[in-house]
Amino acid sequence: MSLIKHIAFSLLLLAAAQNQQVQVQREYQLKAAFLFNFCQFVNWPADAFTSGEAPLVIGVLGPNPFGSYLEETVSGEKISGRPVEIRYFKEPDEVGDCHLLFIGGNNAKESSEGIAATKGKNILTISDQPNFLKQDGMIRFMNQQNKIRFEINVEAARSAGLEISSKLLRLADIYTNPKTDRNVPKGHSN
Amino acid sequence: MKSRISNYSPLLLLPTAVCLFFLASPVHAQVPDSAYSASSLKRLSLEELMNIEVTSVSKKPERLNEAPSAIQVITSDDIRQSGVTTLPEALRLAANLQVAKVNASQWAISARGFNNVLADKLLVMIDGRTVYTPLYAGVYWDVQNVMLEDVDRIEVVSGPGGTLWGANAVNGVINIITKSSKATKGLFLQAASGNQLPWMANARFGGNIGDKVSYRIYGMGYKLADTRLVEGDGKANDSWSMAQGGIRVDYQSSSKDQLTVQGDFYDGFPNPDGATAVVVMGGNMLARWSHKVSDKSEWRIQTYYDHTWRDLRNGFTEKLQTLDLDWQYRFPVGKNHEFTWGGDLRRIGDKKHNLELFAFDPEQRNLHIYATFLQDKISVIRDQLDITLGAKVEHNSYTHYEYSPSARVAWTPAGKHLLWAAVSRAVRTPSRIDRDFTLSVAPGVPLIQSSDMVAATLVAYEIGWRTQPTATLSLSVSPFYHVYDKLRSVEPGPPPTGFPLTFGNGVKGHTYGLEIAGNWQAMRWWRLRGGYTFLKKKLKVKEESDDMNNASAESNDAENQILLQSYFDIGKQVEAGIVFRHISKLPQPVVSAYSGLDLRIAWQMSSFLELSVTGQNLLDDRHIEFIPTSPSARAIVRSVYGQLTCRL
After folding, report:
1. Which has the closest alpha carbon to B254: B212, B298, B210?
2. Rounded to 5, what percent of chain B is helix, strand, coil?
3. Is residue B8 in a domain?
4. Are residues B472 and B528 in contact, defined by beta-carbon separation less than 8 angstroms?
5. At residue B520, what are phi and psi to the nearest 5 degrees?
6. Domain CATH number, residue B430
7. Do A184 and B207 lie within an 8 Å CB cutoff?
8. pTM value?
9. Which CATH architecture does the domain made up of A2-174 adopt?
10. What is the number of domains present in chain B?
11. Is residue B4 a part of any domain in this protein?
């Protein structure tokens, strides 16, 4: 009897876990489409690419929440004539040449190490981490009323030599650095 | 009257397939599970991605089967990419509306026919505020301005909405919804000029106070150039200008409570007859508090004050003050019932300054409306079959109690299809011109005199099919059959003179038609939308009547109209858009069929600066869209304007 209970309980847990997974997946399916969209609204300096046909590289640092979804999204796509490639990096010191870096995990330390690893390079950094923009990250995803919103730190992007199109800015919340503007507390999401 | 509870989030996904959560919540879009494939998601624009719910499709407001009505949605993208500059022009982007420009400041706008400058069967709301005039129960379009940049979406429901929205929502409801101030941060500056638009300027600034309060403040103005005389090339001298400003503050105290306070004021000089410009002035203030009790329950309370002033500059003036309080409460009862209950109290103070021969009696009149409605949505088969029954009781100062019941069935056999059917009754209650008006040829010799006209009624039979086979494609088809009775007639006076003429309820008849609308995100960078509307009207004079308009119901409608809009990106910096429309002949008086083509091309010069050029009515030098009773008809000419936009 207790064995049956045990099995039933395990199955329940499994079902719950799977259900959870489905939800996470949908969120990151959407976010994969966002990342791909972002590529089209950012201008990288010419020397960020080794050649005219060199691929545009989307990097994922740390745990990969997208599964194979990011690959499926970019497969067969070109951006300004360039193919799009996905690379995965386990640790910040592995971060190699990429143009857009999604920093996984939800931990401030990981994201700040990730940002540090991109310093001096023309890399657009993106994360879910709540304090990401304070740490000089560039784009942060937020969930608002069950929908995905994003916030942009324009200054951080500019100092990495990236130009973000106004189309993208129009849809974003614009992050104001509290050092320069104390009246605008940020980092609030529900 | 009844504005739906709304969070004013930008909602742009697959507009015509979106669902009107008909009871009390915003339009919500649903993407079926199967549509979450990488290939379909990546074709969506960012705006569309931002409108997909992240979790659980089982939550009430997002199901496709909750749009059992002929709703079409104009998104902010549709508006921007079309290059339109004024609200009535933006309404041309709804295939289920009849929109005709009459002269530089007047429009004839209706749904499902009965179009006229004084069209009186359409309910129009701007952010939940009813903008109709009790003078003739229609809309003065010259004072309905919104800054199009800050419009979130325009929802157009054709067909009666009386059960929720009350009298006047006879043939349709237009809901103009502006963005929350949370979504309009930063500085926006825009200037435009062209041959038919001597100047237009728009400015807005938005920001935060703390992390719970956001605000915006705006100012706008324009001058519209002369239309042309029908005979010859002369200008109609009807050019006019207006200015408007306003503010909106949103306070989100928690994820459950949202408080909005907004207000506008304006001043303008429309000059429809090309003689003396009319002076219009007005302002309004609105406060709305919505509270979410749970996923299945919410309430909203709203109040507004609206003040308008119109001086015809011939001695006749009109001052109108409206004070309105309305509320709505949605709550579940048991497992299978969801009730929405609401009410509305309105006081309209209308004060005219009469002319000797053109007079309202009494000069000043306070009109009161008290209304309450109850609607029950019954889930017959969970997630598959819903029946919604509702009724509104409304008391007005002229005809006292009026009833607007309705019954709707929505069937979702498979997630991608929705079939619906509805029977509803709506009423058009008399206005001041029907009941209190006298036009005389000499003092004491009336030519037209109001009478005890009663409400006109409509019983509408509608069915519809909505489908969304993929995340990027949606289609809706809505046939309808409307039966009208007691429509306004003009009756001759007693013999021998036949004067004064009076208004009666001597016309009845029916209309039938079909509305088709579709949306296709063909590529990530290319969107196509469009629609076709067919309308047939058969009215006749009732036996007891001698209607002098011979059952025209003072309206003039095209049988066929087509709309196509396409817009696409050319690289990162350039976007181009086309709007094509065709309106078939208007029968009486005859207005020839015409086609209009608008083209817009915009170049993003830098991250904050955009330059665009728009050509409107490119297919002909000039055409007439509508012939009003007065003033004379005018010709609308081809136009081009350039525009510079700065977003910081």
Report:
1. B212
2. 10, 55, 35
3. no
4. no
5. -140, 120
6. 2.40.170.20
7. yes
8. 0.79
9. 3-Layer(aba) Sandwich (3.40)
10. 1
11. no
**H helices present in B449-516, as ranges:** none
Question: Domain span at residue B590?
Answer: 15-647
Kindly tell me the burial class for residue B383, based on how many C-beta atoms sit within 10 Å of its own C-beta (0-12, 13-18, 19 or more): exposed
Measured in degrees and rounded to the nearest 5, phi and psi for residue B157 equal -105, 115
- The pLDDT tens digits of the residues spanning B614-642 come to 999 999 999 999 998 888 899 999 999 99
For residue B472, give the H/E element and its range: none
Cα–Cα distance, B123 to B427 (Å, whole number): 12
H-assigned helices in B57-185 = 76-82, 87-91, 162-165
Region of B553 (left: φ > 0; alpha: ψ -120 to 50; beta: rest) is left
Which of B47, B54, B472 to mutate to probe the A interface, most A CBs <10 Å?
B54
Residue B7 placed within a domain: no
Question: In A105-160, at which residue ranges do the beta strands (DSSP E only) sit?
Answer: 124-127, 139-144, 147-152
d(CA A68, CA A128): 19
B11 CA to chain A: closest CA distance, Å? 11
Domain extent listing, chain A = 2-174
Residue B1 lies in a domain: no
The neighbouring-strand residues paired with B267 are B243, B281
Question: Could A166 and B608 be called an inter-chain contact, meaning their C-beta atoms sit closer than 8 Å?
Answer: yes
pLDDT digits (tens, 9 = 90+) for B543-570: 999 998 888 878 899 999 999 999 998 8
Contact B309, B321 (CB under 8 A): no
Interface contacts (A, B; CB < 8 Å): 97
Judge whether B80 and B148 are in contact, CB under 8 Å.
yes
Q: What is the mean pLDDT of residues B405-419?
A: 86
